Amino acid sequence: MPTLQELTHVQVEEALRSAVEKQVPAVATIRSGGGWMNLHTRFLACRGAHLLMSMPSAEGDIGPRSFAPADKIGISFKLKHHKHVFTAVVAASESYLDGDTVLPALRLCCPTKMQRLQRRAFLRVNVPPNRIVRGSFWLGGREAEPAGTTVECPVWQGRVTNLSAGGFQLLTSPECVSLLEVGDLVGVRLVFGAGLEAVYADAQYRHVEPQDCEALLGFQFLGLPLTPEGRETLDALSARVAEFQRIEEAAGRRAV
What we know:
By secondary structure, the protein is α+β, with helices and mostly antiparallel strands. It has two domains: 5-119, Electron Transport, Fmn-binding Protein, Chain A (Pnp Oxidase, Chain A); 123-255, predicted glycosyltransferase like domains (Thrombin, subunit H, Beta Barrel), CATH 2.40.10. It is 16% helix and 45% strand. The protein has two helices and 15 strands. It has helices at 9-21, 228-255, and strands at 5-6, 25-32, 35-47, 50-54, 72-79, 82-98, 101-109, 115-118, 125-126, 134-139, 156-163, 167-172, 185-191, 199-210, 215-222. A six-stranded antiparallel barrel has the order 2-3-4-7-6-5. Strands 10-11-12-15-14-13 form a six-stranded antiparallel beta barrel. It is globular, with a radius of gyration of 20 Å. The protein starts with a strand and ends with a helix.
């Protein structure tokens, strides 16, 4: 059974109505310089066939960002036990009166499609002791995968230690750390076992923790809800996370 659930038209309307009533915070994902950027926003109002969102922004922004009509933007938000995701088209930028405050806002065409995923899929789970998940990564995003590793275009390998639908941690040789900067866009390939299909994604390098003879690197997946291929990857990752959570919970019950 797919873990990424396609909502009906009625469910989409209910989710949007609830998000607007509560002015739910959301994450807006946009293409930026060949990579991805996550911005903060929130639901403001629903006007006919359009949604009003606060102007997406990042920390350190000076003034509102500019968006053009027909730009595509990904929106993800949390309601109850689920994370909802959809892609919308920008209609226009405008102002929104919030009490006595005028806010820059973005008017989006209401989505006709929306998916949701249980929020627990975004909780990190350790890879079970009897499972091995191999990871490879390289600079430049998934489309920049080299045909083979070279000094100029290295492909690094490692063992995934924990995983969620939002990211993962990987143990690898410390040599790669000097060539990476926090925030770098990388392409990743995860293999969950012999004979199983590999999962590819864009990710952002977030942090490193030195270990005895290795380095523990943290990565955040980027842009998965925005394309059909990305949603398939998100569904596959969520299924693995759910499987590992069941194994972990069963081991916990046996230990009691």
